[in-house]
Design a protein that fits this description.
The chain contains four helices and seven strands; from the N terminus they run αβββββββααα. The protein is of the alpha+beta class and 191 residues long. A seven-stranded antiparallel beta sheet has the order 1-2-3-4-5-6-7, with helices on one face. Helix 2 packs across helix 3.
Length: 191
Amino acid sequence: STNRDLIPLNSQEIEDATASKNEASSSSSSINMDIGLTFPESIILTGRGLESLWEGKVRVRGSAASPILDGQFQLKHGRFNFAGKILTLTHGYLLFDNNKDNDPLIDVRAKVKTPELLALFKLTQRASDPSFSVHSDPINHTDEIISQVLFGKSPGQINFSQSLQLASAIQSLRSPGSGLTGIMDTVRSTL
């Protein structure tokens, strides 16, 4: 490159350009919004074993820099891969309730019928700190429910490799939050 390709700028021009950029960004963050958005079967959430389709309505209020969401998404259909077993989702919602962190309340459920029991998997609470629980009819301990769902056998009837899978599956129930981080980032970026 030669000197004739360069355009000289004086320091005043640079300061003026920086000031206009700062004014534009501060004015865009002070814009107040009140926008209603409808998503008819158009939110696809995938990742960490989840494949699902959601619909809902959300109202976006507040400033562009700190929007506040109010509304709900309902599950249309979906499935979740839990330790290699596909669970069909039977119920689900994400409720944005005007909290400043836009951290929705969640309630997602799946049912699985085995020859020995009907298992109900529930993911509830705030997306940032979810709670995962498993119940069954008839009532059983968690290890029995998971073993029946994964292997069709009681824990005392499974082999060593299956017992390791069972332990891993039970541990994943105790720390479900790590799996939601990417999924909730998808929801936030969509909005």
